[in-house]
Amino acid sequence: MLLNYLRSEPIQDAGLPAGVLNIVQHSRDDAEVVVDALISDNRIRKVNFTGSTAVGRIIAAKAAQYGKPALLELGGKCPLIVLKDADLDKAAQAAAFGAFEHHGQICMSTERIIVDETVVNDFAAKLFDIVKKTTVHPGASPSNVSKVASLVSDALSQDMKIWGMETFGPVAVLVAFKSVKEAIELANDSEYGLSASIFTADIAKAIAIAKLLDSGAVHINSTTVHDEAHMPHGGTKASGWGRFGVPWGFAEFTQIKTISIPTYDADEFQLVKKI
Length: 275
Fold this sequence. Notes:
Blueprint: H1 2-13, H2 31-40, E1 47-50, H3 53-65, E2 70-73, E3 78-82, H4 88-100, E4 110-116, H5 120-132, H6 142-154, H7 161-164, E5 173-177, H8 180-188, E6 192-193, E7 195-199, H9 203-210, E8 217-220, E9 236-237, E10 240-241, H10 248-252
Parallel strand pairs: 1-2, 3-4, 3-7, 4-5, 7-8
Antiparallel strand pairs: 2-10, 6-9
């Protein structure tokens, strides 16, 4: 919360009128009461939420209850696909960055790495080499360590929890595929659809694959953690709906109004004309 307060200072110093930006701090126990009070207020015309899918569903239902539109950017289980002709060094670096940047606590984090079976061993060696050289600083709570450890221990079968559940931590799944068709099926095998990556030397093939992925964004030869102010940002399926970014963000918070001026005689409004 301290960071939010610090961010608000330059905004207010720039001349934003008092009361336009408001920061409300509350305990977890009071969340339901505070959310209901905010959404039900007649002055609130739209709800914007960024966070987990579980909480997003609660907020979406509450917004619908009061007839308020909602813009939601929720969870993700982002896949990174590596084709056999990809630059494996760049792909491994992107995978490591996407999976472990900010301890994996990014909605666009790379959580599923899907690699062509003919290069999966070479790719894995490069990825593991990067991971071994990564400096990890203390800070994780015992409960978080226990959660991630249990997911890793469970990741021994096709129905492993970590394949479908957003971990929001520094851990990712590495699987091999036999065909591009299988790679697409694996990438789409998720309730989420926020961001995805494809690594290949064949850009035309990458674009063709991108069109078949259920994802709000697909980045070719780049990490899944990729967002810029001039690009539309948002997800599909359980990753939410609506888009941020210029001009899409302006459109989300703009009410469309129709104004018409008749160009015909007012007498034409009569249902029955006198003969």
